[in-house]
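Moderator note: this is an archived Q&A kept for reference. The question asked for a predicted structure of one protein chain; the sequence and the answer are reproduced below.
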Amino acid sequence: MKKSTDFTINLMIPFMKYFGFWMVTGREKIFSGIIIFITYIQLIYLFSIVAYDAMFLSPDFSTQLYNMINAVSIFNSLFKLIAIHPSKRKFFNLILHLQHEFIDSEYTEHERRMLLACQRTAKIFIWSFTILVHVTVLGYAAIPFFENIGRNESDRLLVGNIWMSVIPFSPYYEIVYIIQIVCLIKIGVVYHSYDNFQCLMNLHVATQFRILHHRLESLESRYCSERFVQMSSNSHSNDSNYGADCYATFKTYIQQHKALLAYCKKLNEVFNIYALGQVILFTLILCLDAYQLLMADALPSKKMTFASHMLGCLAQLLMFTYSCDRLIEESLKVAEWAYGIPWTYFPMNKHGKMMRNDLLFLLVRSSEPCYISAYKFFPVSLQTYTTVISTGVSYFTLLKNSNDAET
């Protein structure tokens, strides 16, 4: 893959290489395999100690929920890695197609403006989400620093506590703390990398459908309007030539639509299990974040960390559902624009009949939207965004009532 003209892609590639998930050849495959193996070990290590703490060692209900949300967040990154890793070849092919066919293709001035608008939207989503994730990572790294103020050396806390008598003392504490910070950074990078690429691919495919709309709309002005200017000649040969030109152009648009449908199918194959896991985990994370912000008696550093965590989750969910919703909306509009071409003006000759037959196939194909499904249970759209938030609020209310009843 050559260096992209899209700055956002060039920004995301180092993050992917950081945890060993990128296109490599030759000896680089060995180093990539070692890095991805270390990434698995780091995520499993931190998840195991936090989950064990949440299930068996937490002294009260509030601490249990604090450790539980940490475990769910770590598991979210681990799940993303497990869900995408078996389909990495398809994932890389999607990125290469995005680079060569969508970004580096030749466009008119109007189409180039649509592409730049897509890149601006993607940049806003991706940069905002990436910054919020790393602010949250920084907050988690700082929590032990503030928690340990006024504590004895034998009672110091870590990001994920290891209940061994020797750990709180120097230099063991510093060594374990640095190891956990490295693991925490790796978790944050995995957390946002796949979502950024999925958002970018969804928005670019939706933009390609918009470009197809524009080309279908301009079909008459580009070719067919010239026929009506020269109607006075009453030339059968001119009529036949213009019909052939229009049909040849229309055929290229059908091929473009077919390629977009194939791309969307592969996109759904890679991300359908991923999408289902995200919807389920988002509901739990939003519920537990709301409890930590509104109910738990915690230090301001913890409150700020969970506020950043919740904003990051909301931004991630919006980025995920909005890009999927744009894909649905723009793919459905193809039928509307295709039917608007001047097919009624074509004579019933060879090219006119072929164009009408191909138009019927195009209308049938575009009658069903392209979408990312949550493992074939339901298509992801902006309605999913509101559903996840309302479900998370319902779970939070149930959790609050249970806590009030116990107290």
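Archived answer notes: Residues 228-233 have pLDDT under 50 and may be disordered.
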